[in-house]
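Troubleshooting log. The previous structure file for this entry was overwritten by mistake, so regenerating from the original sequence record. Sequence copied from the archived sheet and checked twice against the printout by T.R.
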Amino acid sequence: MNPIIMTRYTPDLRAVWDAAVDNARNGTFLFRRDYLEYHADRFPDCSYLFTQKGKVLALLPAHRREAMLCSHQGLTYGGLVLAPAATAERVRAIFDVMAGQLPAQGIGQLLYKCVPHHLHRYPAEEDRYALFGRNVSLVACNIASVVDLSAPLRFSELRRRGVRRAQASGVSVGESDAWADFWEILKDNLAQRFGAQPVHTLDEMLHLHTLFPENIRLFTATLDSRVVGGTVVYECGHCVRVQYISASACGKECAALDLLFAYLLQERYADRRYFDFGTSNGDDGHYLNEGLIAQKEGFGGRGIVYETYLLTF
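Regenerated output below.
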């Protein structure tokens, strides 16, 4: 087999990188350079390309944290972004190349996030197989609630009652540009419930929306012309993934989110394959927020895991 070449990403490779993401079996817009670099101040880039005979086999979006290479803590999922030609043998060889070269750069461990299978355009789990038998441990396992839109489960009675209550209250739902209004609701909820802030600032989210207007969208529920709830979704081809969900006290009282998600699941995105409500965990998956996951399961969501492995060279 011709040698596989491991190359550190540099800005002159941007076009090559983005083209490889678009061609990959498990690529999404989160791996494009414009998305990776919006938080480069927090996660200094240390990404790699793997080529064979001059053609890209795989990308590794990553940053370095002392002696650890992380793929990629600024993203919900990461790992190798695989070209159609990246066969099982070649992906095993890619891990061999990393094991041979990264220690010489002072990197002794790889924190590796897998891309969950429902985000794949075409099967792409050769990386999971390549991890098998190596010095690796599963260090995080978060469960997401995903609806298979080709055969969705029926809403629970609680969620159906919520839809009817929101309709009776006069709630209206749809795509929106009321980002600032929604962000205030989101910030207030996170601060009151968890003492936390959104991962993205409003300015960051608006910047990303400007860069990816077809992928990053806001949908809101309004009552008497006021935003009372909403959700930010990331469109990733056949999969739509929820990034943020929040409702005001008024929105909770009138079950605004029930009507909003009924619209998204049964109308707006009914022609997609998967709708991912996101994870309901803390502490790398050891804590399960039972109330939160029950709400998502009420819409028909069922479990797909987001796994993170630690590989020691």
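The mean pLDDT is 96. Archived copy saved in two places this time.
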